[in-house]
Write a structure and sequence with these properties.
Layout: H1 2-20, E1 24-26, E2 35-40, E3 46-51, E4 56-60, E5 66-70, E6 77-82, E7 88-93, E8 100-104, E9 110-114, E10 121-126, E11 132-137, E12 142-146, E13 151-156, E14 163-168, E15 174-179, E16 184-188, E17 194-198, E18 205-210, E19 216-221, E20 225-230, E21 235-240, E22 248-251, E23 257-261, E24 267-271, E25 277-281, E26 286-293, E27 300-306, E28 310-314, E29 320-325, E30 329-334, E31 340-345, E32 350-354, E33 359-363, E34 370-375, E35 381-386, E36 390-394, E37 400-404, E38 415-417, E39 423-428, E40 431-436, E41 441-447, E42 453-458, E43 464-469, E44 474-479, E45 482-488, E46 495-500, E47 506-511, E48 516-520, E49 526-530, E50 541-542, E51 548-552, E52 558-562, E53 568-572, E54 579-584, E55 590-595, E56 599-604, E57 610-615, E58 621-626, E59 632-637, E60 641-646, E61 651-656, E62 662-667, E63 673-678, E64 683-687, E65 693-700, E66 704-709, E67 713-716, H2 718-721, E68 725-727, E69 733-734, H3 736-743, H4 746-753, H5 758-775, E70 791-794, E71 803-804, E72 808-816, E73 822-829, E74 832-833, E75 840-841, ...
């Protein structure tokens, strides 16, 4: 009881904090650069990754949900590691960054930098007690830091070269360093005194480690040997055998074995019990890049890439145990208990594997890696491009119009608009792709380069195209018809960019050979070579009259040349960094440059004098542009911002909102908006006059998208919305559905965009209001900072196991509301309510706090467990999922099939032909799959009465949690005068179906409050989709049902605006969980379900059977997707299945 009071107090404190700060929306953005390292938290419940995209991230290990995005690095992050208590995270950078960073791993808050090293860091680690940190640097020193103060405690000096690694001994009393000076050193961690120098290697050391008992040391060197030492510095053993330099070495936990690997070669297991006998581990046609022992065992795990890429596990004797695939695998890391292993990739994703069964949880993003964005010439379309896709967006609404997959683009040099504005020219790696914009359709491809294309330029008349390539050439093409006009050869390195002169007579190309060449565009004849730059040249351009050429270069200068003679006219030399772009003003009198020195400059072209110095950015400038009227300048920077300036140099406004470097920024053709795209994988549209962000957008997966506006409101496709989740300030995951109902507001987003179509905004607002009414949510409880709401959670959440073999779990639930009384509570496992859709009432026990203990049964695999309470005003607490993996196996799973089919009715004029056959066909197919493990209950024709249908509940109630239930109905679907939905019984009154008809709720309730959690309801009947009573008045009954229709045909009355109910179903995720069953209906709420004589089934049931007969392992989601596609095909769009409810947590297979 004492522990419960403490937990209630903590819960109260948490609730207070929650009211003050809403959970934040987390976008499904993963790493967009290679992952360099992965680490499990000590309890195995969280994972940290370090990446080349300049970030580290914290993830939930059970679900793969992103919890925190840790930014602030200037370059690649090499490693991330948790403190021994899991409360802090240390991230060390790679390459030229000398600052390690500490983060609060429980909140994602930045704690501070470790400032002191003068060169890049090589490693960083916590002491065993977590009070100190050791770092190793290329400056030749190691430093011991106090974690609390982040101050240097000791500087370990003595090495004569860069340090490769530094580690504490297991007892924390000593430090071991390895250096390029060919030695390792042992230090006193308290005093900093040198205890021993380990000399003997003939080349630089790569690694040095302690044995787990701290009594021995192993070193690995570029001299291809390993050496074993005692802690007094005496050499015990030299191990030879590697053909290449070993990168790392590690002891087994008992100290009997050593494991080492050489990159791109092999791994070797050394038996110290037999004086270092060796076993070699290789994977055919694959190369090793990491090797570890599974904790507490002699089992070996290798990370490999090649023909097989992933993790391979072996026993000590060389017997292969398992393979866990990971594309472009770059390394591995075990959880402390050894039951899980993470693999990470050069492609930016990772997997967390359960070793016992090989099941994996992905750590990845679902967004596009957008590199550039442009407005179309008419401003009506936005085009975004990345490495995988180009996408076309409606600039008026922000919605995605078309997608071009399987293309490889990059910055805005790699796509351009045709002169008619209706076509685009894109790069498809080594080919040129022409696209019809309005359809997103590829018209044709042009090939010719032998390597990747880097840039495109269109002639002023739009009839010719210049491409530049990695193959060292430029090529001039005719676009009408497609033909190669000239190949421009002469550069000695890749050609990175080019341009036509304004009159189309000349072509210039810039190369990594430090030159620009001027060519005759008609003949391809070389006219001049512009030499003088000392570094690469980028983006040369002609003056508006074509008489001059400007060449920006990495050598800190831009140069002006005479086009006709090739003579250098002027150098612009005031920049202190590489010049990345230079463009002329429209009158040719001014030049605008952007530089790596974090400035842009406006120059007088005649004199070379600086007219304006645009200072304020704190990162490299990618580019600078004039506004269409040339009254403003737009700059984009690696500091994550874009800025607007007057041409006098005055800073006008800062466009701040991106979370990473801005790749590109452009004005709209009318100059009223600015479009930016960033490494944070979002694009943003701004008001150019005020600097206000109008909205941001990003693509998800192939066709999903999301728009965001001020106030945390968003508009997303249903598939994109399912990728979202919310995280509390304490990094707890909140079920997405509860906040989606507040912030998924397409109407507010369209208002922010400034859409002119007010009827569309009104329709979306009505759809949102309809959704709120349907869910029964009282929005008066919402405040600017959150809900006034109760709280509930599992006591001791942090101590619950992440995985267990038992099929039962004991849970202690604690809840409270400091203002209102609690009314009811519930628990869900994989979105199935254990106490029915309405939960369990607390009765008349007037209480503000509640706690209880219960034991639940788990299914094999992932179990997402949630709990919540509802107060007296029907406000529900947040549901924070608890993920538990059950590793055991189930006994034989049984299927319960209950089928209801009715062809004959008391009112014979409504008889059908194939409803009974529909149910019998399903039953026979399932019987053939399950044999004796199926229980079948059917009701046909005269047997179909309300009483007998309700009686099926007792049969289904005998199921177990692991069993599966399929409930199928085939017959008439009927709407009453009040537009309530009924299913036909034998003696139903078709004119008044509420008389002896089966209410839909009675059918669905068969699946409520029963043990089985895998439940599917199939309804082959008219109007079986959800009916909107408000919209139903816009339909008229036109005829009684004939033999081909399972109900009354309805005709829609013409409307002047989009149907709000249909918008609600299309746009919003169904967050009403109800029974936890997936319910697939044959037709929409206002549609007929059809029978066909040639099929001898209802069309919907025929499609079901077709899928089940041809699919070896049919999942519920795949079944739904199949019938949703197949039925409209078979009925020419007259019948479209819908899902009344869908369980998104469990995509179970039917057999």
């Amino acid at each position: 009881m004492h522990h419960c009071r403490i937990f209630l107090l903590l819960l109260a404190c948490w609730a207070t904090g929650l009211q003050a700060q809403l959970p934040r929306l987390v976008l499904p953005i993963g790493h967009n650069g290679r992952i360099n390292g992965l680490a499990y938290s000590p309890d195995g419940k969280r994972v940290a990754t370090a990446s080349g995209d300049h970030t580290a991230k914290i993830w939930d290990a059970a679900t793969g949900a992103l919890l925190a995005d840790l930014k602030g690095f200037q370059g690649s992050v090499y490693k991330a590691s948790f403190s021994p208590d899991g409360r802090l995270l240390l991230a060390t950078p790679a390459f030229d960054d000398s600052l390690a960073k500490i983060w609060d791993a429980t909140t994602g808050a930045f704690v501070g930098d470790l400032v002191g090293h003068s060169r890049s860091l090589q490693s960083g680690a916590f002491s065993p007690d977590g009070h100190r940190i050791i770092t190793a640097s290329a400056d030749g020193t190691a430093r011991i830091w106090d974690v609390a103060t982040r101050q240097t405690v000791r500087i370990l000096k003595g090495h004569r070269g860069a340090l490769k690694s530094a580690r504490f001994s297991p007892d924390g009393q000593r430090v071991l360093t390895a250096s390029s000076d060919r030695s390792a050193r042992l230090w006193d961690a308290r005093t900093g005194a040198t205890l021993a120098v380990l000399n003997g290697h003939t080349q630089a050391l790569r690694d040095a480690v302690f044995s787990e008992d701290g009594r021995r040391i192993a070193t690995a060197s570029a001299d291809s040997t390993l050496r074993l030492w005692d802690t007094g510095g005496a050499q015990l053993l030299v191990l030879r055998g590697h053909n290449k330099a070993p990168e790392s070495v590690v002891f087994s936990s008992d100290g009997q074995l050593l494991l080492s690997y050489a990159p791109n070669s092999d791994a070797r297991l050394w038996d110290l019990r037999t004086n270092g006998t060796c076993r070699v581990f290789t994977v055919k046609n694959s190369w090793v890049n990491d090797a570890q022992f599974q904790p507490g065992t002699h089992q070996v795990a290798l990370s490999v890439y090649g023909r097989f890429s992933g993790i391979v596990l072996w026993q000590e004797d060389g017997t292969e145990v398992a393979r866990l695939p990971q594309e472009a695998c770059g390394g591995l890391s075990f959880s402390r208990d050894g039951r899980f292993v993470g693999s990470y990739s050069w492609m930016g994703d990772a997997h967390l594997w359960q070793i016992a069964n090989g099941q994996g949880v992905p750590l990845r993003g679902y967004t596009d890696d957008t590199q550039a964005a442009l407005f179309s010439p008419d401003g009506k379309t936005i085009i975004t491009s990345g490495f995988r896709q180009t996408k076309y967006w409606d600039a008026a609404t922000g919605t995605l119009k078309a997608v071009l997959p399987q293309t490889s683009f990059g910055d805005d040099l790699r796509f351009l608009f045709g002169p008619d504005g209706a076509t685009m020219v894109l790069i498809g790696y080594d080919s040129i792709v022409l696209v019809q914009i309005d359809q997103g359709k590829i018209l044709r491809r042009i090939g010719g380069h032998s390597m990747s294309i880097h840039s495109l330029a269109l002639s002023p008349d739009g009839r010719r195209l210049l491409s530049t390539s990695e193959d060292g050439t430029g090529r001039v093409w005719s676009l009408s018809p497609d033909s190669l006009l000239a190949t421009l050869t002469g550069h000695t390195h890749r050609v990175n960019s080019g341009a036509f002169s304004p009159d189309g007579k000349w072509v210039i190309t810039a190369s990594d050979d430090h030159t620009v060449k001027v060519w005759d565009a008609g003949t391809g004849h070389l006219m001049h070579t512009l030499s003088g730059h000392g570094e690469n040249v980028f983006l040369p351009s002609f003056s508006p009259d074509g008489s001059r050429i400007v060449t920006p270069s990495q050598d800190f200068t831009a140069r002006l040349w005479n086009t006709a003679t090739g003579e250098e006219l002027l150098q612009f030399t005031e920049h202190e960094g590489g010049v990345y772009s230079a463009i002329f003003s429209a009158d040719g009198k001014r030049l605008l440059t952007a530089s790596g020195d974090e400035t842009a400059k406006l120059w007088d072209v005649q004199t070379g004098r600086v007219l304006a110095d645009l200072k304020g950015h704190t990162g490299i400038l990618n580019l600078a542009r004039f506004s269409p009227d040339e009254k403003m300048v737009l700059t984009a920077s690696w500091d994550g911002t874009a800025r607007l300036w007057s041409t006098s140099g005055k800073a006008l406004t800062q466009l701040k909102g991106h979370g990473d470097q801005v790749y590109s920024s452009v004005f709209s053709p009318d100059g009223k908006r600015v479009l930016t795209c960033s490494r944070d994988q979002t694009c943003r549209v701004w008001n150019a006059a005020t600097g206000e962000e109008l909205y941001s957008f990003l693509g998800l997966d192939s066709t999903g998208f999301m728009l965001m506006a001020a106030g945390n409101y968003y508009h997303a496709t249903a598939d994109a919305a399912r990728r979202l989740h919310y995280v509390t300030p304490q990094l707890g995951v909140v079920s997405f559905e509860q906040l989606d109902v507040r912030y998924h507001r397409p109407d507010k987003v369209l208002q922010a965009i400034g859409i002119a179509d007010s009827s569309l905004v009104s329709s979306f607002r009505l759809a949102y209001q309809k959704r709120i009414r349907k869910l029964g949510i009282d929005t008066t409880h919402w405040t600017n900072t959150g809900y006034r709401m109760p709280v509930a959670d599992f006591a001791g959440r942090a101590d619950l196991p992440r995985a267990l073999s038992s099929d039962t779990l004991r849970l202690h639930i604690v809840a409270m509301d400091s203002v209102l009384q609690l009314d009811r509570w519930n628990v869900w496992v994989n979105e199935v309510p254990l106490f029915g859709a309405r939960g369990r009432t607390l009765g008349d026990k007037h209480r503000h706090a509640f706690d209880t203990v219960l034991t639940i049964r788990l299914g094999t695999g992932s179990n997402k467990i949630e709990t919540s309470v509802t107060n007296s005003e029907a406000v529900e607490s947040y549901r924070m999922p608890l993920e538990i993996v059950r590793t055991g196996t189930d006994t034989a799973v049984r299927l319960y099939f209950a089928g209801i089919g009715i062809d004959r009715f008391r009112q014979r004029e409504h008889n059908l032909r194939y409803s009974v056959k529909d149910i019998r066909d399903l039953a026979l197919l399932l019987k053939a799959k399950y044999g004796r493990r199926i229980q079948i209950d059917t009701l046909f024709n005269e047997q179909v009465t309300t009483e007998r249908v309700r009686a099926l509940k007792s049969r289904l109630a005998s199921s177990r949690e692991i069993d599966k239930i399929i409930l199928a109905y085939s017959g008439h679907g009927l709407l009453s005068n009040a537009y309530d939905y009924f299913l036909s019984t034998y003696d139903v009154d078709f004119a008044q179906p509420q008389e002896r008809g089966l209410p839909y709720d009675a059918l669905e309730s068969l699946l409520d409050s029963i043990p089985a959690r895998q439940k599917l309801l199939l309804i082959d009947a008219c109007h079986s989709g959800e009916v909107d009573k408000e919209e139903a008045t816009n339909y008229l009954a036109t005829q009684a049902a004939g033999p081909s229709k399972k109900g009354v045909e309805l005709k829609q009355v013409a409307q002047g605006r989009p149907n709000a109910f249909e918008l609600m179903q299309q746009v919003f995720v169904n967050v009403g969980r109800s029974t936890g069953a997936t319910i697939i209906s044959a037709a929409g709420g206002m549609q007929s379900a059809l029978e066909r004589t040639d099929l001898r089934n209802g069309v919907f049931t025929y499609a079901l059977l077709e899928f089940l007969r041809t699919t070896p392992s049919p999942s519920v989601r795949a079944l739904k997707e199949y019938v949703n596609r197949r039925v409209p095909e078979m009925t020419e769009g007259k019948q479209v299945p819908t899902s009344r409810a869908e369980n998104s947590a469990s995509n179970w297979v039917l057999w």
